Amino acid sequence: MMNNDLSRELDQRLVELQSLFELSKVLNSSLNLSAILNNLLLSPMGRMMITRGMVLISDQDDCFEIQVVKGVPKDLIGQTFALSVPFESPVTCKQLPDSIHRLKTLFLQYEIELVIPINTSTRTVGLVALGKKISQIAFQEAELEYLDSMANIAATSIDNALMFKKLKIVNRRLDKKYQELNTLFDISKEFNATLDKDKIVNLLIYAIMGEMVVSRCFVFLNEANQLELAAYRGLEIKPQDLHLLASQDLLNHLSRLSAPMRIQKNTIPKDLKPLVEQNFDIAVPMRHQEETKGVILIGEKINKQDYQDDELEFLATLGNQAAISLENVYLFQETLDKQIMEEEMKIARDIQKRLLPDKEPELASLDIKGLNIPSRQVGGDYYDCMILDNNHVALTVADVSGKGVGASLLMANLQASIKSLANHHDDLGKMVALINNIIHANTGFDKFITFFYSEIDLENRTLTYINAGHNPPYLFHENGEFEILDVGGLLLGMMPDMPYESATVPIRKNDVLVMFTDGVTEAKNAQDEEFEEWRLEELLAKNLDQSMSELVESILLEMKKFSGDEPQADDITLLAAKVMD
């Protein structure tokens, strides 16, 4: 009898070994975790006539997830439990410690009878949970040994499948990184191939929407220290959407972003509430040299999935690349504008040079010297010396408001008017009034000219002049006394049809006429003091015996001595004439 019992036990052991061998071949033939777990659960359930069971897998320490179920609701799949497995061999559900109360409660609820740990040499990778047998007979010692052996055999297959799953995830991430790097490389080439700001922004939007498959994308750029909407694309964008996104508080908050921000609907600051209302999921700053040059607002993905950290990193890199390209556009535009300005200044300087006399007239009865020193490349001062006939010489000085091409053109307008009218008038007052109307008709309200015009009659020894709002010139006599020439009217170009009064004064041998612009008397020193008229008057009184070239040079030297190293703030123009015979 004993021999028969021993024979049956040996037969049973052989069958179990064969079953375990077959199961081992099945489990090790695949790296598909789902297939391995299904075979692991169905094998004992079929062999022992069990109606329900489940498998929990730990992909990381102390966190177990239900991945396969049989005979219990499928909505249990995905539930996770944080626990440390305190046993190494099969135990009944009632033997589970209270420290894993939540899982134990679940097992009892679904009439789980036995729990078998799946152990590798280093950790527990899973649990097999089995319900009662249909026969209601308790699990026997041999069955527990079989189940324990089954779990041990499965442990390596599961561990390999988990590793394979991780490798697939890593490979997918690497593939995605590779794709992202290709995208960055391609879009970088596109960015660098254009100096069109709008094209760069549109390329950025299309790259984001194509790569992330998102519902909407808005790009704001920092223009004059203020974020402004540059472009947008997306579904169902309404005019009120744009109005909400123009909130100054919102834009100020976004301009301070230094890293990508997830828009958390429940914890977002009040200033950013419009982003929630417009279904934006993230905000990505466009950074360059530690400054936020713009912000990208991106809506949810079409597939509703959350943005991963590596995706935010990709978007930040893409935004920064766009910021660099946009900065290059701005720098190019600045360079181009500077070149245009320099060209304009060159043109203006050429105009001004042609307006000023190449040299003063050489007359036996009159020593004349003029000088113009602009404070910049192009100034707004003007002077001229014209021989009208054998007995008449016209001397004029003017100061045009503004600088650059505009001032030069206005000077040209003034010169043309003077030259066309100087020899064709009977009354200086009428001539200047006509010039005033011409200037007024051809300039805006902010353009005007201070103007002094004089004619010297060499035969009758008289000086007739009109001062239109200019610094009054000096007429010094040989004895040191002087007259201020201030008769005239309003400066040119302010109002039309204005009257101008002329005055005539006698001139004698050795009389000196000195005309100047405010760049002379308003020159400043380091103490912010001005040169002023009184210094000029004293200087002239001491140097009346000099030639006009020497007199002009003396004035310049004295101004330089007064100003020291202070930069020249305004144009300097001098025109001096001395009666010789």
Structure description:
With 581 residues, the protein is an alpha+beta fold. The protein folds into three domains: 2-166, Beta-Lactamase, CATH 3.30.450; 195-330, Beta-Lactamase; 356-579, Phosphatase 2c, domain 1, CATH 3.60.40. It is built from 14 helices and 22 strands. It has a six-stranded antiparallel sheet with strand order 3-2-1-6-5-4. Strands 13, 14, 15, 16, 19 and 20 form a six-stranded mixed sheet that branches. Strand 13 (381-387) and strand 14 form a beta hairpin. The radius of gyration is 48 Å and the shape is rod-shaped.
Shape: rod-shaped
CATH topology of the largest domain: Phosphatase 2c, domain 1
Query: Which CATH class of the largest domain applies here?
Result: Alpha Beta
Radius of gyration: 48 Å
Major beta sheet, strand line-up = 3-2-1-6-5-4
What CATH architecture of the largest domain do you see? 4-Layer Sandwich
Described by strand count, sense and barrel closure, the largest sheet is: 6 strands, antiparallel
Q: Span between N and C termini?
A: 164 Å
The overall pLDDT average reads 86
Considering the protein shown, what is the CATH homologous superfamily of the largest domain? PPM-type phosphatase domain
